[in-house]
Amino acid sequence: xxxxxxxxxxxxxxxxxxxxxxxxxxxxxxxxxxxxxxxxxxxxxxxxxxxxxxxxxxxxxxxxxxxxxxxxxxxxxxxxxxxxxxxxxxxxxxxxxxxxxxxxxxxxxxxxxxxxxxxxxxxxxxxxxxxxxxxxxxxxxxxxxxxxxxxxxxxxxxxxxxxxxxxxxxxx
Length: 172
What we know:
This protein is of the alpha+beta class. It has one domain: 3-Layer(aba) Sandwich (Aminopeptidase). Helices cover 30% and strands 34% of the residues. A seven-stranded mixed β-sheet has the order 1-2-3-4-5-7-6, with helices on both faces. Strand 2 and strand 3 form a beta hairpin. It starts with a strand and ends with a helix.
C-alpha cells in the first residue's frame, strides 16, 4: 500500500477498463489514458489516493475526496480492484487505509460512497467495514446498456461527534 504517483496512470486506467470493473464504476469505456494522466497530475490537496501492489504490480486503488465548506466534516470514497485479485483482501486493505486516513489524520466524521445495485460483493465489503445503506437512487446509472440503481452508503467515525450525537438521539 502506498500513495499514488503520476506514473500510476496507465495501471489505474488498465484496471478501470477491465470487464470485471468497468460495469461497476462511473467511468466510460472511451476514457483515454491521457485523461487519467491529467487527472492524477491535477490531484488537489483534498484528494487522497492509495495504490495496492502485489510483487510490484498494481492490483487496485482507492481514493478519498474531502468535502469543502459546510460539508468539510465528510469525504467521498471509491475503490477499484483488478478482477484477478478479487477475494484476496485487496479491497479490504485499501478501505482500511482510506478509513485510517479519514479517522486518524483528517478527523472526518462521515465517509460516503455509492455502490451499484448490481455489485452485491462490493456492498457486502462496505457493510463489513461499517458502512450502512442510507438510500437508493433508482436507475441513476447507465451500465452495460441498462439502467441500474445506485445505493448510497455512509459510515460515521466511531466515537466521533456525529456518532455520539446519533446515539444521543436514540430513545432508550
